[in-house]
Each structure stands twice: as structure tokens, then as C-alpha cells.
Amino acid sequence: MEAFAGLFGIDPFDLWFFFEVLIGGLMSGVMYALVALGFVLIFKASSVFNFSQGVMVLFAALNFVGFIELGLPIWASFILTMGVMILLAFVVERVVLRPLVNQPHISLFMATIGIAIFLEGFGELIWGSNIKPLEVGIPDDVVFMGDAMIQQADLFAAAVASVLVLVLALFFHYTRIGRALRAVADDHQAALSVGIPLNTIWVIVWSVAGFVALVAGIMWGSKLGVQFSLAILALKALPVLILGGFTSIPGAIIGGLIIGAGEKLAEVYVGQMLGGAIEEWFAYIVALAFLVFRPQGLFGEKIIERV
Questions:
Q1: Mean pLDDT of all residues in 82-95
Q2: CA–CA separation, 246 vs 249, rounded Å?
Q3: Which residues contact 136 (CB under 8 A, 6 or more apart)?
Q4: Is the pLDDT of residue 12 over 60?
Q5: pLDDT per position as a tens digit, 110-137
Q6: The pTM is what?
Q7: pLDDT at 186 over 80
Q8: How far apart are CA 213 and CA 19, in angstroms?
Q9: Mind listing the domains of the chain with CATH numbers?
Q10: At CA 100, angle to CA 305 and CA 111, rounded to 5?
Q11: Which pLDDT tens digit goes with each residue over 37-74?
Q12: Assign residue 100 a region: left if phi > 0, alpha if psi is -120 to 50, beta otherwise?
């Protein structure tokens, strides 16, 4: 073990260092989970994987910081950006989803890829492609737990994610709209036959996903700046979804924590022996293993089709 520490500069028995790496990974996982929540919401309501959710995070953050740069206060920028995301939900429902009702899921999936490409280009056209710093008053000091350093911004993000998960879980299970969303996900035609307005439901769920995207964009933008690489970074939510399950809101959080903590610990304790950069692909290897052995994820619903 002394040779290990001398070679890599790491004492594997330093529990405080391990705790610091673990907490840092868990906080990164919370950020991944914020993006994954948007994917889960739309999948639960339409059984379609929304490939554009990562770009929606970028688009919401671009609008938010753009309004701030125009001189608007933070609260007004938030409200205006939320208005933009609701307008986007109406446009997506009218132009994309309504014509594709009862079409194969692959058609809707391809449509979301088109939405992603459009939003990325449209956002760049309006607000430019420069990196934009975002300061909204989120604390950025460091706190100590023993000898371990923890960023206050990470703790703030964890608190925000926890509140979002609680609210969304209650919304889906104990409200009439939430039950309607689950009914639409199970069977579009059956939902229509009992009077559930499919178009309205889709507008609502895309608006809620837009709100989640805005919150995630603010958290990521405050940490890294608002830049177009956020859309690529948001793809880390894919392994999170595979682990937690595409239909589980708590699973999005737990999957995010597993991926975040796992990749940080693997990078620090294993990556240096393999030349580094294990953090870039660790999540996808774990996701591949889940696809082979448990494709529905930890909390997803196992789908059985009888013919």
C-alpha cells in the first residue's frame, strides 16, 4: 500500500480523502439526476425517449442568462424563461406530437432528435455561442466535514434536487393530472376513450419537463458557465436512466448518485493505474452491464408483452 501511495500520491486508507471523493461524486450525481428527471417525466407521459431534453437544459439556461444580460432581475428572467419553455411545449405539441399520435415510437424519437437540433441552432442564433458566466447567488464557499472539503453549491444543488423529486413524486401519485399522465403513458387510445385530453396532457408534461430543464440549467450554468457543451454533458443522464429505470422518478436520483459516486471513485482509485480518463466512459460501461442483465433498471417496470 505504501508503494501505491508513493506511485499515485494517494493513501488508500485515508478515510477523509475517500469521503471527500465520495461526496464530490454524489453531488455530481445529483446534477446528472436533475437532467434525468426531465427524461423520466416525458417518458412516463408518452413512452417516448425525449432525446432533446439535454438541449432543453441548454436552451433554458441560454434564455435565462440572456434575459439577465438584457438587464432584467433574476426573478423576472426566471419567469420569462419559464414562459418560453411553456410556449415551446405548446409548439412541440401542435407541430410535432399531434401529427404523430399513434405512430411508432421510433417516429416520435426521431422527431425529438429534430427538436434537439433545432433548439441548439435557434439558441445560438438568438444568444450567440460564447460562454456566459451565470451568477444567481448560489453560495460557492467550501465547508469542512472533518478533513473533507465540500462545496456549498453542491449541497445547494442536492437540496434543490431532493425537493424536486419529492414534489414530482407527489404530483404523479396523488393528483388527478398525475394519474392522467400515467394513463396516457399506458395506452393513448384508452386514455382518449375515457375523456383524458391527450394534447393538454402533453403540453403539461413538456412544460413541467421545461421547468426541470430550467432548474438543471441554472445549477449547471452556475457551476460551469452557460456553454454549448452543457448539451453534451447532459447525455450523462442516459446511463442514469438505464440504471434507475425510464419510468421511475426516485430511480433517476438513485441512478444519478450511483453513477456520480462510481465514476469519481473509479477515476481516483482505478483510473490512475489505467492511464486516467476512466471517468469519461465508466458510466456507459455500467449502463451496458445493466442493459445485459437488468434492462428495466433498478426501479423500472418490467414490460411483458403477450402474443
A1: 92
A2: 8
A3: 74, 218, 222
A4: no
A5: 888 899 899 988 988 888 878 888 887 7
A6: 0.82
A7: no
A8: 30
A9: 2-293 (1.10.3470)
A10: 95
A11: 888 888 877 777 888 888 898 899 999 999 999 989 99
A12: alpha
> Which triple of cell numbers denotes residue 98?
399531434
